[in-house]
Amino acid sequence: MRHLQISNLSFIYPNSPEALFSDLNLTFSLGWNGLVGANGSGKTTLLKLIARKLSPTHGTISGNALVYYCEQKLDDLPEDFDSFSTAYDSRSFKIKNALKIEDAWLYRWESLSYGEKKRIQIAVALYSEPDVLLLDEPTNHLDIATKQTLIEALKGFHQTGILISHDRTFLDTLCNTTVIIKNHRLYKYKTPYSNAMLEFQKEQEALTRQIEDHNQKIKQLQKAIQQQKEKVSRSDSRLSKKRIDPHDRDAKEKINLAKLTGKDKNDAQRVHTLNSRYQQLDANKMRVEKEYKKGVVIEGGAHRHHASICIEGGNLTLSEEKVLHYPKLLIGDSDKIALVGDNGSGKSSFIKTLIPQLDRQELLYLPQEIDADLAAELFEAIRMLPNEKKGALFTFVTRLSSDPKSLLENTMPSPGELRKLLIAKALLDNIAAIILDEPTNHMDIDAITSLEEALKHYDGLLLVVSHDALFVRSVAKRVWSITREGEGVYRLREGGQASA
Fold this sequence. Notes:
Elements: E1 3-11, E2 21-29, E3 31-37, H1 43-50, E4 58-62, E5 67-70, H2 81-85, H3 90-98, H4 114-127, E6 132-136, H5 144-154, E7 160-164, H6 168-174, E8 177-182, E9 185-189, H7 193-238, H8 249-260, H9 267-283, E10 309-311, E11 314-317, E12 323-326, E13 329-331, E14 336-341, H10 347-354, E15 363-366, H11 372-383, H12 387-399, H13 404-409, H14 415-426, E16 433-437, H15 445-456, E17 461-465, H16 469-475, E18 478-486, E19 489-494
Parallel strand pairs: 3-7, 3-8, 5-6, 6-7, 12-19, 14-17, 14-18, 15-16, 16-17
Antiparallel strand pairs: 1-2, 1-4, 8-9, 10-13, 11-12, 18-19
Helix pairs in contact: 3-4, 7-9, 12-14
């Protein structure tokens, strides 16, 4: 199989006011292709269409007879799990070794960490030998070491791979082709993500200049049409006999002579020609993708000064087999702290223990995953907001690269869209502290860069747990690192560089 071909594809969800894709034509060749775009832009829908989990409204997809779709959620056992778990051939051992999968994992799926489940999911997919491998946000919750393990394993896949990810480093390392979804349109570049975004921005800037020139020509043409119409009007008035004395034979003869010699006879034709040119220019108007202003303005609690908080050192039991030791910690009012460490080292557990000790009434805590109850509370709170605050909320969401109207009308918002709404709603208050546990999970790249910019200028207390090295380096001034010291023993230390 040489390529995956999408031809004249259109898709619209039932009860949706407009099509998500219209007359889409796209080819995916061998190798890894990055698929990027804002939350709700249709990335996951496109993968489901390719995986035949959804059917196109119109059009066809060919080359997807043997396809494996690794979705974001890992609630259930992967498809074909039994075949892989009972296989003892050289290929299965090679895949397990590449992804560092322990045999015991195959017998305790429910108790595995997200990273362990993700590795098994991808191992099963690779063992199935598909022609097309689809990965939807495979790096969510994964530490740096596990991401690198995934990258090395996926480099060995030589068929057609399509990867949705918010992880810029992961995209640049693995993908040689990038497809950008913007306002229901797709742009394909045969280059990794960072270069593709530069090319896209340059194209948009050049197109903006062309549009400005195009619009200037239209204005000039409109002015010429108006002038020509006025000239025709004056000519018609001059050649009219209505105001001439019926007995003034000389004046009548002059008008007859003017009409006979064709004087001003091209004026009307000139108007027709100009109108035709205007209609052609107007019909060929170029379109530049609309860009919203980025960067969320966060009103911190700078006017309220709290004393620095001292957290006494101690031990935190993570499980029967694991314990986390942490030292005495001093936290300032405007500290920007990143908590980093491997999966399963106790970062989230430590954060939950820390929150009650912060003594902050106005605090935003964003957990790793937003459950249905929290989502329902969020939508009810938004519904009760006065119009002024709703407007502010819409501005926040817009600056996080989503359309707030369509997002609120969506009965099934994506996990990334829910995170945007939760952050935007919290930012309507004058919050004094922000605690974010893996904030970049599920969020699109535009939203991540907007959030980075906002957090740089935030003047309250910020504590983030993240495996996104670029995000950590961008927002953190201090780093707490959790490392493993022995079997089941972890220790939190102050210091180190802002890298995950």
